[in-house]
Amino acid sequence: MATPAILGLVVFFVLPLGAAVVISFTDWGLLSSPEFIGLDNYRAIFSDPLVGKSLGVTFYFALLSVPTGIIGALLMALLLNQKTRFNRLFVVLFYLPSILPVVAVIVVWLWLLDPSYGLVNQGLEKVGLPTLDWFSDPNLVIPSFVLMNLWGVGGSALIFLAARRGISPTLYEAASLDGAGPWQQFKAVTLPMLSPVILFTLVIGIIAAMQTFAQGFLIGSGSGQSALFFNLYLYQRAFQGGQMGYASALAMLLFFITLILTAITFRSSSLWVFYESRQK
Amino acid sequence: MTTPELTQGVHEVAGLPPQRPTRKARRSTGDLVRHILGRATIYALLIIGSLAALLPLFWMVSTSFKANSEVFKIPATWIPEQFTFEYYAEALLGTSPNFIRFFFNTMILELLIIVGTLLTSLLAAYAFSRVQWRGRDLVFGATLATMMVPFAVTLVPLFIGWSKVGAIDTFWPLALPAWFGGGAFNIFLLRQFMMQIPKDFDEAAQMDGASHWYILRYIIMPMVKPALLVVAIFTFIGVWNDFLGPLIYLTSNDNYTIALGLTSFKQTYGTQWNLLMAASVATILPIVIVLFTFQKPIIEGANLNPGLKG
């Protein structure tokens, strides 16, 4: 019964994974036949300035978007956790942007952040603030993506909300009896109890941010290399340059970096993640 | 995890009234004012948040109805002075880019992928949760591991493989994998659901000589229907929104899906924002409809995060 899934795992994952390693040792433009060149691709990576550049762009985006995304989602979840009328409606509205197709999201944000006619700049002007060039400004393109990313954190917010609702009220009652105010309750109960979910969201968030592609692909061209995400560079090398070997080596590098980042995150978790079951 | 129910139970057994936070106790005027201010802040924040979520969409819809002369007007008008459907007609009924074509392509893919995903992820989840076989945990672990590996890693070999069998610019590379497991996350989600069903059901049926197929079809499947709905909905959204897959594998405009087709609109129309917004509204509308129709399963399904709870 698991046959289709096992076949799928082998054909669409294990074999390609193995093949990717092999291909990364070759010089292969799709039309020619592959030529084994050993570690040459990896050597070339280290002297390729665009690898450093694109990694820098990707790290910068991850560094800004992951923490802001988690904090934004957490605040959203705590707000949605309040007992209010129309709670379900608010949940749905906060969630909506996160499931919209990325291309449509990018198109509407291009229009919102249009330097001359965009709604955001018109608003800034109205309240007397300086207007910005957003996606057209090489220094602002990544922060603009971070802003756009914040619009879509409703998905993580729902995960936090479910976790928050899973915290036993008795913990809050106990804290309140001990005289803890809302802020202390947040620090002593909410945050530790949510920390395993925060860890999960952090890991998923880092992996996703390292793979950012569509934003750079659709908007990046206007701002030179300042939106050259790593995966965009890999895509260009593979599908525009036809260098399958080199692209595979790049993919291996990304895989390696993602593994290290995930490992570091998990390692750090013993310092800040609280597991209820371990305490008992 | 069951602490609230437990306390409740204890109170009932002890003949105590169910525990409730003491609301009425010592409420001075100061407390009352603070309470009202607190509630007002919460509602204000909720409304600000909803506006932040909706304003971009409102602006999108508003622009889509504006005539060319009004699109670039400063200050911008929130409600179009004159509503025109012209740009919807031009964007959606045109032949290049051909929105209707994109729509049908996407719907064909939706059908192929949703059916394949439901069928094979159900089978896999059953095999991972209710059948004992050698290497099961290893295979399940490997299945979960696929979620942690960047897509770029397998991208190049898969692309080469599909091009060797002549399947570039067909739906095969996008649809066929769904018939082989239907994605790690879906398998995981269904398995979690199945784990909660007591084994007694299967054991009783097995005593009566029922096969695994029978148990799956007539005992397990009816019980995991809510989870199957969640899988179907999220698969629908995933296929609708998928950008990278179609970008890599579909090369001729006639085969484009909606998400990919929107990029053709962007290339063709440049900064004709009313046309672009009309196409964007049509692109997101099905997702909005799905979300509002299936609020409950979607909101509950979005909560099911892999692993770390409990």
TrEMBL record, chain A:
Q: Where in the cell is it found?
A: Cell membrane
Transmembrane regions listed in the UniProt entry = 59-80, 92-112, 140-163, 191-210, 216-234, 246-266
Q: Which domain of life is it from?
A: Bacteria
| One Pfam family named in its UniProt record | BPD_transp_1
Q: Which residues form the ABC transmembrane type-1 domain?
A: 55-265
Keywords linked to the UniProt accession: Cell membrane, Membrane, Transmembrane, Transmembrane helix, Transport
The annotated topology with respect to the bilayer is:
Multi-pass membrane protein
* Any one biological process term the GO annotation gives: transmembrane transport
Give the residues annotated as coiled coil: none
Main localization, broad class: membrane
Query: Gene3D superfamilies this protein is in?
Result: MetI-like
Gene Ontology cellular component list:
plasma membrane
Q: Which family is this sequence assigned to?
A: Belongs to the binding-protein-dependent transport system permease family.
Q: What is this protein called?
A: Sugar ABC transporter permease
Source species = Demequina lignilytica
UniProtKB/TrEMBL annotation, chain B:
Keyword set for this entry? Cell membrane, Membrane, Transmembrane, Transmembrane helix, Transport
> Which superkingdom heads the taxonomic lineage of this protein's source?
Bacteria
| Cross-referenced Pfam families | BPD_transp_1
One GO biological-process annotation of the entry reads: transmembrane transport
Membrane topology per the record?
A: Multi-pass membrane protein
Q: Where in the cell is it found?
A: Cell membrane
Q: Which residues cross the membrane?
A: 36-59, 102-126, 138-160, 172-190, 227-252, 272-294
Q: What is this protein called?
A: Carbohydrate ABC transporter permease
Q: Which residues form the ABC transmembrane type-1 domain?
A: 103-294
GO CC, one annotated term = plasma membrane
SUPFAM superfamilies in the record: MetI-like
Similarity-based family: Belongs to the binding-protein-dependent transport system permease family.
